[in-house]
Design goal:
Helix content is 76%, strand content 0%. By secondary structure, it is mostly helical. It has one domain. The chain is elongated and about 70 Å long. It starts with 6 loop residues before the first helix and ends with a helix.
Length: 200
């Protein structure tokens, strides 16, 4: 007896399969919106905390060193951090969904919030990483110009400066990759929720 399906048929069926329709109540939509709001708030708290630490360290380096390059780099870093925080407040803040909102409005709210966060993460280079690069570049170059003996007592080898630069490059690349992956996940969630919108 011959099989009705061969290997190619199975592969085609696998490729053409569709996800089951998404079924969600208004309560579930509101719970999703609340979870998203909580995640955004905690992310922002972490970012604000990191920004405060970087600003304090930059101020310390500004006071510690007399080098024009290092002071310029520290100032640019603080300016970059301030820009990042302003963009996060403006485009990445969490919004709250009212409890008595009907299903269609709750769905629109959740999709809008997901789209907002997706766009923020997709543009991670323009508002988060690139504004920090000038200050870091000037500061690291200033470190490389320090004499072997200086008033602060800090001594850095060339290899340490190179390793620091490489670590910064790798760190920036990882941050960009992770945020792009999360943006793709958000896009997938948006597409699923849009199926609910089309069914209404």
């Amino acid at each position: 007896m011959q099989n009705d399906y061969n290997g190619k048929d199975l592969q085609a069926a696998w490729r053409n399969q569709v996800e089951p329709p998404l079924i969600m109540s208004r309560k579930e939509l509101q719970q999703r919106a609340q979870r998203l709001e909580t995640r955004i708030r905690w992310r922002n708290i972490g970012e604000y905390g990191a920004a405060a630490v970087i600003a304090i360290l930059s101020a310390y380096f500004f006071l510690q060193f007399r080098s024009v390059l290092l002071r310029t780099g520290a100032t640019l870093i603080v300016a970059g951090v301030a820009y990042v925080v302003s963009q996060l407040v403006r485009h990445g803040s969490a919004a709250t969904l009212a409890a008595d909102v009907p299903f269609a409005s709750s769905l629109d709210f959740l999709i809008t919030q997901l789209e907002r966060q997706r766009e923020l993460l997709r543009r991670i280079w323009t508002w988060y990483l690139l504004p920090l690069l000038p200050g870091l570049a000037v500061f690291i170059f200033g470190l490389s110009q320090l004499p072997s003996s200086n008033a602060s007592g800090l001594q850095l080898s060339r290899s340490t400066i190179v390793h620091t630069t490489v670590a910064c490059v790798i760190g920036f690349a990882l941050i960009a990759a992770v945020n792009q992956a999360v943006a793709r996940k958000l896009q997938h969630d948006i597409q699923l929720l849009n199926t609910l919108r089309s069914e209404k």
